[in-house]
Amino acid sequence: MFKKILIANRGEIACRVIKTARKMGIKTVAVYSDADANALHVKMADEAVHIGPSPANQSYIVIDKIMDAIRKTGAEAVHPGYGFLSENMKFAEALEKEGVVFIGPPSGAIEAMGDKITSKKLAKEAGVSTVPGYMGLIADAEEAVKISNEIGYPVMIKASAGGGGKGMRIAWNEQEAREGFESSKNEAASSFGDDRIFIEKFVTQPRHIEIQVLGDKHGNCVYLHERECSIQRRNQKVIEEAPSPFLDPATRKAMGEQAVALAKAVGYTSAGTVEFIVDGHKNFYFLEMNTRLQVEHPVTELITGIDLVEQMINVAYGRELPFKQTDLKINGWAMESRLYAEDPYRKFLPSIGRLTQYRPPVEGPTPRGGIVRNDTGVFEGGEISMYYDPMIAKLCTWAPTRLEAIEEMRLALDTFEVEGIGHNLPFVAAVMDHDRFIKGNITTAFIAEEYPDGFHGVELDEETLRNVAAAVAAMNRVTEIRQTRISGTLGNHERKVGDEWVVTLQGREYHLNVAADRDGSTITFEDDGGHKRVTSDWVPGHSLATLDVGGHPLVLKVGLIPMGFRVRVRGADLKVHIRTPRAHELAQLMPEKLPPDTSKYLLCPMPGLIVKISVAEGEEVQEGQALATVEAMKMENILKAERAGVVKKINAAPGASLKVDDIIMEFE
Fold first, then answer.
1. Could you tell me the residue range of the domain that residue 12 belongs to?
2. What does UniProt give as the signal peptide span (predicted)?
3. Count of domains forming the chain
C-alpha cells in the first residue's frame, strides 16, 4: 500500500480524504494557498506545502505548483478530491509522466467523460438516451441566442468543463440567453480555465437522480445504487438523499446497469457518478458523468457501509473490488444537508467572515437509533474566504426509514450552532418540514416553485408554537429563580417569582401558568386548560437548550433579549417575549420602530468585487434591467432594477471591493 499520498484540494474534501488515509495507515500531504495557511486540512495532514496566492487560478489549479509539492514531499499518489484539478486530463497525464499514481480514473476516461460535450456525443453513439441540445462550440452571445431559439426555450447554458453549479444558467428568453452566455463564459474561465459553452433543452419538472459507480483495474464494475439530488438552487445541490423516494426496483436496476455499461465503454476505474434527468414517468436521460468523487458521496456510504475513498485508494494501488453487485444492498435511508456560507434572508447571497461560533452536533449513534455524520473543513474562529466555494459542512443523518432520517436531520440541524456569518441552516431546516419534501414529491424546480420570492423565514405550526412557548416559560422560570438567589441584596427585599406569565411569539400570545418542581415544570395553557410537561438540564448562559416537551424532543438555539429570548428552531428565527400579565399589558402601548427607507439606493448585497456597471448617471432604467455585476465566491451576480427610475449617482466603479450594504448607485 502507498506510504504517502498528497491531497490536491482544500477544505472539507481534503479533511475527508485525510481521515480515511489515517485509518489506512497512510501519511498525508496537504497543499495550501495564502488564504488557507491556518485551514483545518493543513492542521490535520502530516505535512503541508504552500503553493501560492489565494485565488485558485494562482494556486490550486496550477499543475506545476502541485507537481513541485509532490517532488518536495515524495508523495507516491495524489487524491484530487472534487473540483479544481479532479477532472483535468492534463493533470492526470502529468502525474503519469512523473510516475505518480492518480487516485482516480485513467486520463482517457477523463477525456472521454469529463468533457460534457464529448461525453454526450459518446453516450448518444452508445445508444444512451440524451437530452436534446447543441453539442458544438458556441462562438459568441448572438450565436447562443440563435441556437437557443432553434432548440426552444427554456434552455440550459453550461460550461463544458463545469461542475458544482459554476458556469450554468437557465434562459427563458433571448435576453436571458445573451446575459447567461456571457456570465457562464466568464465564470467558466475564472473557475476552470476553460470557457467553452454548450446549450441543451431544459427539461421542466425533472428529477436529478445519479448513480454511483465503482470500477477496478481487473474488469470489475458495480453500481452502489442512486442518490436523489433534486433539491437544488441555482443549479447547485442543497439537499441529497439515498435512495430516491421516486424509483422502483426495476428503474433502479435499469439505471444502474446503464451507468455501468457506460463506465465500461470508456474503461473507467475508480469512483465515478453517472447523472440522469428522470421525468415523471420514470423515463431517464443521460446528463453527464462526473469522473471523480461526488460532494454527496456520504449518503451512499451510509446506506451501503462502503468507504468510497478507501476503495478509490485500493483500486489505484491495483487491488480488486472486494464485493460483487449482488453484495450491494440498500440499508436504511440517508440524508445530507449542505451548509453554505450564504444568507437565505438576502436571496442566498454569499456571506464571508469569521466563524465566531461553530459547534456541530455530536457525530455517531443517536438515542433514537439513527446516526449523525458531519464532514467539514472549518473550525470555530476560522474564516470563510471569498476565494472559494461557500460550503461550510455536509451534515448527514441515517435511520432505518426515510421519515426517521428526516426527523434525525431536523434535530441535528436544530443542534448545529453557527454564528458570525450568514448561513442557510434555517432554509434547509424549513425544507425538512415542508409537506412536499416529506411526501417525496420533489423536482429540480422545488425551490423555485415553493420559494418564488426567496426565503423569508418560517411560520411555525400551532403545535410547535405551543411547545416553544412552554419551553420558554420553563426556561424563564429557571432564569427568574436564579436571579432571586443573587447574594448581597438588601434585607426584606426578597424577590418572588410568580406563576402567571404571557408568552408572545410569531404574532400569537399564550397566557400560561407555570408550576415548577425539582424535576421540571408543568405548563398550563389558560385558553384550553391543556398541560405540557417540560424537562431540561438547560442553565442560563447556554446557547443550546435540549428539552423534552410533552414527551417529544425539542432543541432550541437561545439567546437573551430584553424580557425574553431569541429562539431559533426548525428554520424559524423568533423573538419570544415572556412577561407578567401587567408588563404584557403595558408592552401593547409601545410604538413600533420602522426600518429606514432604502428604496432609492442600489446596495451591495454581499461582500464582493464590482465586475461591471451596466448603466450611466442620468440614464432611465426599467424594471428588470441589469444595473451592475458583482462577483463573490467565483459566482457572478447580476443586480437588476426592481422598478423603473433614473440613475442619479454612481458611487462604485469596476474593480471596487465592497462590503454588504455599501451604496453602488442612487436613484432620483
1. 4-103
2. none
3. 6
